[in-house]
Amino acid sequence: MAGTGETGQGETSLSEASVVVRNPAFVHVEVDGEVVAMHPETGACFGLDRVGVRIWSLIAAPVRVDAVCDGLVAAYRIDRETCTAQVLDLFADMLAEGLIECRPPAGDA
């Protein structure tokens, strides 16, 4: 599953309507304003910067990608188009590494 873009729930690509959530298998700790997340079984470890920490907090519970972008556009000086493109790229990487899970949008089940 990791690295293929498959979510295990039928969705293979991310969009603004996608619902994402942290993978609960990862443990994480905040250190000096950054988050370090580690998978206890595989030992895979990832670091997130200040903006990554904000995103990590926004995806603690299932949330639509567009809602994450709403929060970031309100908090940072970034235009919506750039934010959406960067968040989708980040989530694609996180999905490939198993950091997040992607669920079908409500009503698409």
Helix segment count?
3
Going by helix content, strand content and strand pairing, the class is alpha+beta
The SSE string, one letter per element, is EEEEHEHHE
The biggest beta sheet reads: 3 strands, antiparallel
**Total count of strands:** 6
Q: How far is the first residue's CA from the last residue's CA?
A: 20 Å
Side-by-side strand order of the widest sheet: 5-1-6
Using the CA coordinates, give the radius of gyration. 13 Å
Identify low-pLDDT runs. Answer: 1-11
Percent in strands = 15-25%
Describe the overall structure:
- The chain contains three helices and six strands; from the N terminus they run ββββαβααβ.
- The chain has 109 residues and is α+β, with helices and mostly antiparallel strands.
- Helix 2 packs across helix 3 (80-97).
- Mean pLDDT is 86; it is low at 1-11.
Please render the helix and strand layout as text.
Blueprint: E1 19-22, E2 27-31, E3 34-38, E4 45-48, H1 50-58, E5 63-64, H2 65-75, H3 80-97, E6 100-103
Antiparallel strand pairs: 1-5, 1-6, 2-3, 3-4
Helix pairs in contact: 2-3
